[in-house]
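HUMAN: Can I see a protein plus its fold?

ASSISTANT:
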Amino acid sequence: MRKSPLPPILDLPPKTLALIGAPLERGAGRRGCAMGPAMLRTAGLAESLSALGRPVEDRGDVAPGASRGGAPAVGRANHWGDVAAFIAPLSGAVTAALEDGRTPIIMGGDHALSMGSVNGVAAHCCKVGRALFVLWLDAHADFNTPETSPSGNMHGMSVAMLCGEPGFDGLLPQAERVGVTPGNVHLFGQRSVDSGERALLAGRGIQVDDMRRIDEFGVVAPLKEIIARVDAAHGHLHVSLDVDFLDPSLAPGVGTAVPGGATYREAHLIMEMLHDCGRVGSLDLVELNPFLDDRGASAKMLVDLTCSLFGARIVDPRGNGRQSA
């Protein structure tokens, strides 16, 4: 039988994976996400990645700076100072890891942390002259601003802040804020979008592959389109994976669960395709709330998905039938 050609391996030898804990929970409406990094360590994230032959180093948890005062000029953003204190050092830690030749895996923590992690990736990409693309795997669009947000919770504002929407002045020092080109942001798997977000997204050129499109076309066709864009630009792809992207039956440990999420095989297929494309250079794992979890099910699911992203296969990719991990 003729074998299918293997995808190109773009990362030999494999880069060291740098685990960076970001125990931020003040961006969310429920407490508990601060325990996320510890739970991912307990679930064996480092050991599982090492078993794939990937060098792994744990850089510990980022310590927030002093809580900065202030507030948005218009609207409401809960715990602005606490979030601001966290995202600046996280941005620096992520940039430092990339400059050291590492692939950072940011262990959250709520999704407000991505204001720092993605900004750090953007700073590195700007320095080396490489286009940055962001794949946002999430039940929500996270495109609220302090003016549009119904709750004021900042984990629902990350994409808007990163894309330069008004209302976030002072959250990061101006000299350190880089952001992302809106047209290079791809929202994937959304099924709960506020009316204010919907109005903003309509005019920003952000691609949204919501669950309706995934129901119609599956995950393969939309994801291939995204990968093709990144590949054509020789870009750096940052993946931001929110636990609530998954169906709550698979991952109950999240404070913002929405029914109808990605299935087990859909989620793994996405990660396997992303691994094969060879363009993923950084990863967020966010919104894990062990307080709400069922015997570690959500943490274990995140570990398994991360392993699929970094090379775990059902059978050996060289075709000899052995399990790779």
Remarks:
- The chain has one domain: 17-309.
- DSSP finds ten helices and eight strands in the chain.
- The domain at 17-309 is CATH 3.40.800.10 (Arginase; Chain A).
